[in-house]
Amino acid sequence: MSFDPSTSRLAKLTTSLLETVSKLEEALHAQRFPSPSFDEDAPALFPKEAIGVRDMAIDYAAEIQDLLQGPLDIIYRHGSFNNCVSLQAISRFKIASLVPAGGKTTYANIAKETGLDERAVRRIIRHAITMRVFREPEPGIIAHTQASKALTNPIANDWVSCGTEEMWPASAKMVEALEKWPGSQEPNHTGFALANNGESIYQVLTGNPERAYRFSNNMKAYMLMQEYNVSHVITDYDWGSLGHVQLVDVGGGAGHVTMELAKHFPKISVVVQDMERMVEKEGSRIPIELAERFKYVVHDMFAPQAVQADVYYFRWVFHNWSDKYCSLIIKALIPALKPGARVILNEACMPDPGAIPYWREKYLRSFDLIMGAGFAAHERSIDEWKGLFAEADPRFTFQSVNQSEDSALAIIEFVWAAEK
Ligand SMILES: C[S@@+](CC[C@H](N)C(=O)[O-])C[C@H]1O[C@@H](n2cnc3c(N)ncnc32)[C@H](O)[C@@H]1O
């Protein structure tokens, strides 16, 4: 049988990949952006103009790789449980910071600094190198790649640490939790609780300031990624059209997102509400130019809302609560709501299977599993968001949903109607 390129998926993908990569390079060149590399100084974010073709190139290349591997190879590669071993060691011992920027070190030096056995250091880093974290330009010499250099930022290192020290053990117990407590909506019925002597993540973080601080850095680290960058919050909603407004950032954590919003929109005043430990830490870090318009207040979002505002903004707050608790958080707003008040969520909207680039869908579905393992919660589709608010109170009217191509989170708006 002779080879017929018109019936070969591999040949079609390769042709599409070639065409797409040349469009990508043109788009990058037009933006004076370098061709992608692993170089430690390579830019981390892509220009928006190149996102669509980049998504296509990623999906074509990934499908080619999957097609060329056998079924168990695919499962082994995507299973990736080993990846957490090397990443855990790298983040726990802050190994990225032991390699000088633009310079080199040795396995022996890293062993000396960390107190680990040199052979252990070598096997850990050589595994990480297969994920493009560090490189070995000559035997025994370690230098940075773009990814290892990123981990010299303590916030990014805490993000890896939170993933490998908190979420990985929780994920390893998720199936056990699903068997033990089928359908439970309780945060202490989770893989996380099974890995933490029965305590929910909320109990653990409340009782352990160091872990709470790391978790808060983990949330900040997402801002370093294109898909979660604060620029989407600024551009994906017409904040300017609101005029002078009071905005409450409920469960705002470090307030890092609405602080950017306040910087861009001088008519927006912000109150960040969170638990005491967060507010104590962040309250003193308000830049002087925002002193009049930005403050942190302790507030339990399950208690009746105390601030009458124009906008209640929730970023990544509901996705880690089950429907039962989300409903309580929504109902707690009602005593403060005036007609026309807006509730604006910044959350993922789960797509129909196959509706978005494959690699983006994989990110979202991974997040959904993390929400299950850590919190007995889940990511929601737009219909589920609408259903959640309608069930909490029919006076919430769905208004709009917006999401830019390179954002993982949508901006979903509900408006409070006095009567219905
Ligand atoms: C997933 S984080 C999101 C933080 C921030 N909005 C962001 O996008 O980075 C959830 C936040 O909810 C806060 N939180 C949890 N329970 C709370 C409660 N009962 N009252 C107020 N805030 C709470 C946590 O401290 C944390 O800052």
UniProtKB/TrEMBL annotation:
Coiled-coil residue windows: none
* InterPro entries on file: COMT-like (IPR016461), COMT_C (IPR001077), SAM-dependent_MTases_sf (IPR029063), WH-like_DNA-bd_sf (IPR036388), WH_DNA-bd_sf (IPR036390)
Database matches in PROSITE patterns: SAM_OMT_II
A Gene Ontology molecular function term for this protein is: O-methyltransferase activity
GO BP terms in the entry: methylation
Keywords attached to this Swiss-Prot or TrEMBL record, sorted alphabetically, are: Methyltransferase, S-adenosyl-L-methionine, Transferase
The residue ranges of the O-methyltransferase C-terminal domain are 197-392
Q: Which residues form the signal peptide?
A: none
Where do the TM regions start and end? none
In the UniProt record, does the keyword Transferase occur? yes
Q: Does the keyword Transferase apply?
A: yes
Under which name does UniProt file this protein? O-methyltransferase C-terminal domain-containing protein
Q: Source species, please?
A: Neoarthrinium moseri
